[in-house]
Amino acid sequence: MHRIAGWWDGFELWVAGLPFIPQFFVVLVGMVPLSFAIAVALDRTLREVMRLLGRDRAQAAAPASAAGAMTVGAMTVGATAVETPPLADAAAVVAGPAVDPRQPVRSGAR
Questions:
Q1: Computed from CA positions of residues 44, 46, 50, 55, in that sequence, does the dihedral angle turn out positive or negative?
Q2: How far apart are the C-alpha atoms of 42 and 92, rounded to whole Å?
Q3: Which residue windows are transmembrane per the record (predicted)?
Q4: What is the distance between the alpha carbons of residues 34 and 81, in angstroms, rounded to a whole number?
Q5: For the chain, what is the total number of helices (H) and then of strands (E)?
Q6: Using one digit for the tens of pLDDT, what is the confidence trace for 36-93?
């Protein structure tokens, strides 16, 4: 373990001694693949955990049960599908009197 720690300390000192641009590229070349590998490993691990818990994407994509499932334009209630009207345009949705145009704020600054 001391050999690995000594090698890492030497590498760290070498990178820290480089000018900024080469230091940036050395870190970029090392960290981008390492970060990608960690992300892939976490993705696969979490996917497997969710599958074991029964909460994977395959079940989420399966059709919902007939009790209360909603789709665009229709709602399933029990065993019957009820058609719902399409959403009216935005002007018809707003109810009430027309709003007066806004007046500019007068701050009193001269």
A1: negative
A2: 48
A3: 20-42
A4: 51
A5: 4, 3
A6: 999 999 999 999 999 898 887 766 555 555 444 455 455 555 555 555 555 555 555 5
Q: Tokens representing 57?
A: 């994407």
CB 77 within 8 A of CB 68: yes
- In degrees, rounded to 5, the angle at the alpha carbon of residue 93 between the alpha carbons of residues 89 and 97 is 125
> Long-range contacts for 36-40 (Cβ within 8 Å, ≥24 apart)?
none
What is the rounded radius of gyration, in angstroms, for the C-alpha atoms of the chain? Answer: 30
Helix (H) or strand (E) holding 55: none
Q: How far apart are CA 60 and CA 53, in angstroms?
A: 13
Question: What's at 1, amino acid-wise?
Answer: M
